[in-house]
Structure formats: structure tokens, C-alpha cells
Amino acid sequence: MMRLTKNHFYITAWALIFNYSCSQSADKKATIATDSLSTVATVPDSAAFKATIAGKQVGLFVLKNKNNVTAAITNYGGRLVSLLVPDNKGKLTDVILGYDSLKSYQKPREPYFGAIIGRYGNRIAKGKFSIDGKAYQLDINDGVNTLHGGFKGFYAQVFDAKQLSTNELELTYVSKDGEGGYPGNLSVKVHYILTDDNALKITYEATTDKPTVLNLTNHAYFNLNGAGSKTITDNQLQINADRFTPVDNTLIPTGKLQPVKGTPFDFTAFKTIGTDIGQTDDQLKNGKGYDHNFVLNKPSLTAAVATVKSPVTGIVMDVYTDEPGLQFYSGNFLTGDKHDGKHGAAYGYRSALCLETQHFPDAPNQPSFASTLLKPGQIYKTTTIYKFSAK
Fold first, then answer.
1. What are the start-end ranges of the H helices in the chain?
2. How confident is the model at residue 88 (pLDDT cuts 50, 70, 90)?
3. 126-to-132, 151, 230 alpha-carbon distances in Å
4. Which of 84, 274, 283, 291 could be disulfide-bonded to 233 (CB atoms 3.0-4.6 Å)?
């Protein structure tokens, strides 16, 4: 009788320990899933990015400055995976949406998270343009138009990577003549530099052996509240632009330059993003919110062309560029239907914004827009800076 009681005691004890352990494990997982923003910000495991694609090695490259600001970049698509910057309490916060593994970046209809976009950022109407009387047809991958270079744009290519120092990465890629329908063998070089004043500087260079069109940018999705936070509509935004390019219902510019004054597109002074985003307006209807190119008053690498502020973290991001346009996208097509973001986050509707520096959409077909033509012997060079502070 005593033996049975003793066994019963051990069985009961082990059951209690097992149940407590499972409960603690479940609670821990729940905490990570629902409160990931409270965890210490870290970059993903580099092992999850190691692979060979089309005979090229893919990896994750980490840049760091003297303030421990950290950027993680994969040479698959030249993608910015993580960017850890201090909030107003000194806590490092990841402000870039992305994934924990290379595999997630390869899924169908992935939204270009953090990617270098080429050959042509934004849209080209019906995927058609002409150079010197010769017509070219591109991939049609966005309704009736071409978006971000087509089905195999730079976002899906493996760049050759060379880490030049602890805070600088060089990426190179040769886009072959005819890739995506674009003419010319195009040699591209992209430098990521993380400076000690907490700025991420991106410099693009390119040359071609045939006349071609080119419009390079980066498609980083920012949430200064922290990647995985539910919204960016509470952020304040200012854009130094008195005009924008209105679009048709396929998001192709009409060719006009419309004043922002008196419209929901007036961000000439700081305004909370959500203030006018729900207004009844044809342009907001066409874009499902903000998804428009702003005509910068004065492109500059010394004076900010746009600034975003978070009321949650106090993080401020200033944007500098020598490009004439800035595409403000308010994350209208994010769905959050999967918890496949970093740390299991769901990236939902309007949970990030993009500020893509660029020449104008569909410029090859719009004579009044600045030309995007690149000829042999010319060097394409442009720079964009995202600089961070906290208040």
C-alpha cells in the first residue's frame, strides 16, 4: 500500500512539473508573439540567410557604428533586413519591416521589403517605352503595368557583396541585355554606409553599353514605433513638396503636377498621417490611401526633404536625396494575414510607410518629366540618406 502511494505521489509530482513547464513555455511564446516590441532588438540569425542561388552565395551582412546602431543587409535583392536605432530612452528599436529568414523573402508576391529596386523603381505604363524610335516591351507584373523592374527585378537578384569595413557594404550586379525586357548590359554598384551620426547612406552608381532607362531606389518599409507595431497613421510627416503627381486608377501619373495646397496631400507642415487619409478624394481612392510621387521643392543632401516622427518612441527620421521625387506609400496593401514577420509579427494594414526617393513614375512615357535615359559613356549616380535621432 505504501509503494502504491509513493508511486502515485511521484506520478502526480511529475505531472505538475510537466504542466507548469508547458504553461511557462506557452506563456513565453505568447509574450514573444504578442509583445515582441518589448524584447531586446536584435538582428536575425545569419545562418537563416545562408544559401546558394543561381550559383551565387547569399548571406547576411551586419554594419555597426560607434553608437551600436546596427543595420543587417542581405545580398539577395540588396535588402535592408533590420535597422536598429535608439529611441528617446536609449533603447535600440528595429524600425524596418522584414523577415527572419531568406526563404520568406522568396515567397510569391512578397512586398519588396527593404529591397534595391531596379531597373526601374515604380511603374511604367503597360510596360512599354521607346528609345530612338525602337519600342521595348517589359514584364507586365502589376495589372496592365510594369512595377519595380518586372518579375525578376533587382529585388530577386543576388548581388556580389564585399564588406569594406564594419560600417560599409558594397554590392555589385550586372543586369544582362534584355533582362526583364530592358536594353543594355547594365553594371550597378550600391554602397550602404552606416555613419557615426546615425545615418544610413545609400549611394547608387551604374553604367550601360546601350541606351536604357534607369530609376534605382530602396523599398524599405519603416515603422518608427518599432517593426511589428500596428500602425504608422499616428506618426507625423512633413514633405518639402508643393506639388505631387496625380495618378489614374492603375496608379500611372496623368502627367500633371498638382498643387498639394487644399488637398489631403499637403504635408508642407508636420501633419499626423491619419488626419486626412480617410477623406473622400479621388486620388486617395486610386491609391487606396497614399501611394503617390511628391515633387520635391529642392532635392538636397544637406537639408531634409522629408521628416517622420513617432509619438511612441520619439524616433525621428530625416530623409535627404538628390532625386527629384519621393514616393510616399502608406502601406495600404499590407494585410497582416500571416504572422511571418520578424519574431512572428503580423505586418498589417498601414503598419509601415515607404519614402522611396526616385525619378518620377512612367517618366519614359512622360515628356514633361525629367528624363531617366542613361547612355553609354554616362555614369548614373545618386545618393539617399536616412538619418535618425530621438526626442
1. 2-34, 102-105, 282-287
2. very high
3. 19, 14, 34
4. 274
Residue 48, C-alpha cell as written in the block:
537563416
Rounded to whole angstroms, the Cα distance separating 231 from 47 reads: 30
Task: Name the residue among 81, 28, 36 with its Cα closest to residue 228.
Answer: 36
Catalytic residues: 219, 356
pTM for the full predicted model: 0.90
Q: How far is CA 6 from CA 1, 15, 20, in A?
A: 9, 14, 21
Rounded Cα gap, residues 306 and 385, in angstroms: 11
Q: pLDDT of 280-338, one tens digit each?
A: 999 999 999 999 999 999 999 999 999 999 999 999 999 999 999 999 999 999 999 88
Residue type, 179: E
Sign of CA dihedral 295, 298, 301, 307: negative
CA distance 242 to 86: 32
With beta carbons less than 8 A apart as the criterion, state whether 203 and 382 touch: yes
Between CA 56 and CA 356 the distance in angstroms is 28
Residue from 227, 186, 299 nearest 80 by CA? 227
